Amino acid sequence: MADLKYYDVILKPVVTEKSMNTMAEKKYTFLVHPNATKNQIKEAVEKMFTGTKVAKVNTMNLDGKTRRRGNTVGKTPKRKKAIVQLTADSAEIEIFSGL
Predict the structure, then answer these.
(1) Residue 57 placed within a domain
(2) What is the pLDDT of residues 56-73, one digit of tens each?
(3) For residue 1, is pLDDT > 60?
(4) What is the CA radius of gyration of the chain?
(5) Total domain count for the chain?
(6) Where residue 75 sits, what CATH number does that domain have?
(7) What angle do CA 57, 58, 62 make, to 5 degrees?
(8) pTM higher than 0.90 for the full model?
(9) Which residues sit opposite 33 in a β-bridge?
């Protein structure tokens, strides 16, 4: 397991049409550190956003895509995405409220 602080776990929110539609069910999507565990993600969300209680966390490892530029072939970096489900009595996450 990685020795990560809670402020290093969440990298940025994912703002897509699909993630915006799931916000009605209190599901929020974030890009997280590739070595972060579900418990670390849960702790980071509860500490960074006051009044939130996490019910469950689902994670996905996304491999990098193959890209070509002329004769050179490379890969984009791999990422990890987390979908965080909040409890019914939990507060909303403020960074998504203005979108």
Answers:
(1) yes
(2) 999 999 999 999 999 999
(3) no
(4) 15
(5) 1
(6) 3.30.70.330
(7) 135
(8) no
(9) none
**Ordered strands of the 10-13 beta sheet:** 10-13, 27-32, 79-86, 54-62
In a domain, 1, yes or no: no
What six digits make up the tokens of 92?
A: 């909303």
Tokens encoding 38: 């579900």
Other beta carbons within 10 angstroms of residue 45's beta carbon come to 24
C-alpha to C-alpha distance for 44 and 50, rounded to whole angstroms = 11
CA distance 81 to 1: 17
CB under 8 Å to 8, separation ≥6 — which residues?
33
Please list, in sequence order, all residues whose beta carbon lies within 8 angstroms of the beta carbon of residue 44, skipping any fewer than 6 positions away.
Answer: 6, 7, 9, 10, 36
CA atoms within 13 A on the CB side of 21: 3
Any idea which residue has 């979908």 for tokens? 83
**73: in domain:** yes
Domain contains 86: yes
Domain that holds residue 54: 6-91
